[in-house]
Structures are given as structure tokens and as C-alpha cells.
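Input (structure):
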């Protein structure tokens, strides 16, 4: 799977009010911006076009654009984030998707909630994890929207206490998934090749493969070595500030 585009959004000064499961202190905007710059430069290095949207101060978590949409080859689906403070971020993304896609549809049900961080697209199926942000109605609505595009959905479970399904896994290639053992132990990746994140390095699971590079958060040497040993070219990106808000590599872009 080759990507030609990514959409990102610059972090806003309001990032200090971003959501977090456990408070370990506020992120530093300047350092986050520096990490964000290297993230974008790395995506661009692969030849892709990266669209950098301006900061949105009204939405402290808006740097985590992945949660606002699902970008498929046939079209884009605008999400309905389950975090009340993030609901409005989806409408902010919609016009940018219309500019790049012929077909843009949206999750609209008043009871439907779903965030992009809970969705893993592989070549054979779309895995969606139920979580505190994504409910059955949201998943059912997504299934109806993507069925005409030929996609099948499979519902899986996000481990308890984990923000999103993809907090704990990522797709490295057509049939290889990087996963924490607490997630893969559920059997949800049976039939795929699984590379386990090293014990104690669970936060390394939020990694992305983007064209010929694997972007992973810095500071997880055993997992980095395992990914490199499997033949991937790894780039470590500073993630200390996003990590304070439970964010990682996948959250920071929409890729298609
Ligand atoms: C949130 O709680 O929504 C943000 N602080 C972090 C979102 C991370 N997004 C992602 O994993 N896709």
C-alpha cells in the first residue's frame, strides 16, 4: 500500500487543555511543534504530499487528526468523535476531504460515536475496536457506509483502560501487525503475522508504516530493534509531549 497524501494539523496553544487518562503534566507547545515538524519532514521524505492545516485553538486535541475521518481509496468517511470536546473537530476536517476526494460521506446518527483511532484498515478487512469513544451504533453505521465500496468490517475489542484500538497496534505491511501482547492475546489478529511490542514498551505500538519508512516514537529500543530485524527502515520521532495526552504516531495524520 503506497500513500500519496497525508493531512496533519499544527498543535494549538490550547494543547495544554488536551484530554488525558492520567495527568503527568502539561505538554510543552514548542517541543511538541518541533516533534511535529520532524514527523512531517519524515512523511515528506517518502515523496508524499503533506497538507499542514492551521492550529485550531477551540479544539485542544485537534492535532490528533486521525480521529476525525477514515480515508479509504474509494472515498472518505467523516467520523463522530465520542469525546464531547472533540465532536466539532470532524466538521473542521470535512472541507479538506471534499477538496481531495470525489466521495465524502459521514457518520450522522445522534447515538453513533466512532473515532478513527479505533479503526485499522488492512488489505482484507477493516477492524474496528469498540472503546470508550466508539460504540456499536457508530460501528454499524460505518459498516453500512463502506459496504458499497466493497469493505467488510470486523468488530474487535480494545483492551480495558486503553484509549483506542490502534493505541495498541499498527499495520506494518499487507499481513504484518505490530501489537501489544495484551491485545494480540485476544486472538483478534489470528491469520496475520504479528510482531510483538517488547514488554514494558507498550507505547511503541502506536507506530505507522508510511511508504518505505516505519515511524515510531523514540525511546523504545527493544521494539525498534525487533522492527528493524524484521527488515523495516525505522525512524524514531520524539513523542514525549503527545504521549502526555495519550497520542502517538498514527493519531497525528490522515494517510491515503
Ligand atoms: C484524546 O484523548 O482524544 C487525545 N488526547 C488523544 C487522541 C489520540 N488519538 C489517537 O490515538 N488516534
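Output (sequence):
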Amino acid at each position: 500500500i503506497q500513500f500519496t497524501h497525508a493531512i496533519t494539523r499544527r498543535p494549538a496553544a490550547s494543547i495544554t487543555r488536551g484530554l488525558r487518562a492520567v495527568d503527568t503534566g502539561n505538554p510543552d507547545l514548542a517541543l511538541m511543534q518541533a516533534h511535529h515538524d520532524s514527523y512531517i519532514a519524515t512523511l515528506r521524505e517518502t515523496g508524499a504530499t503533506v497538507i499542514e492545516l492551521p492550529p485550531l485553538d477551540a479544539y485542544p486535541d485537534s492535532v490528533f487528526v486521525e480521529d476525525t475521518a477514515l480515508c479509504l481509496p474509494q472515498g472518505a468517511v467523516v467520523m463522530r468523535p465520542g469525546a464531547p470536546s472533540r465532536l466539532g473537530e470532524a466538521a473542521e476536517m470535512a472541507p479538506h476531504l471534499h477538496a481531495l476526494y470525489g466521495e465524502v460521506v459521514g457518520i450522522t446518527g445522534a447515538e453513533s460515536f466512532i473515532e478513527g483511532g479505533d479503526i485499522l484498515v488492512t488489505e482484507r478487512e477493516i477492524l474496528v475496536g469498540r472503546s470508550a469513544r466508539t460504540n456499536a451504533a457508530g460501528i454499524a453505521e460505518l459498516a453500512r457506509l463502506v459496504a458499497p465500496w466493497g469493505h467488510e468490517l470486523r468488530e474487535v475489542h480494545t483492551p480495558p483502560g486503553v484509549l483506542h484500538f490502534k493505541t495498541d497496534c499498527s499495520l506494518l505491511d499487507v499481513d504484518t501487525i505490530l501489537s501489544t501482547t495484551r491485545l494480540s492475546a485476544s486472538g483478534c489478529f489470528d491469520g496475520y503475522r504479528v510482531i510483538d511490542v517488547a514488554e514494558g514498551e507498550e507505547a511503541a505500538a502506536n507506530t505507522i508504516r508510511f511508504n518505505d519508512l516505519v515511524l515510531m516514537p523514540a525511546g523504545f529500543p527493544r521494539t525498534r530493534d525487533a522492527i528493524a530485524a524484521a527488515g523495516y527502515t525505522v525512524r524514531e520521532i520524539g513523542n514525549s509531549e503527545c504521549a502526555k495526552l495519550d497520542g502517538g504516531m498514527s493519531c497525528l495524520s490522515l494517510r491515503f
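Notes: The longest strand covers residues 5-9. The mean pLDDT is 97.
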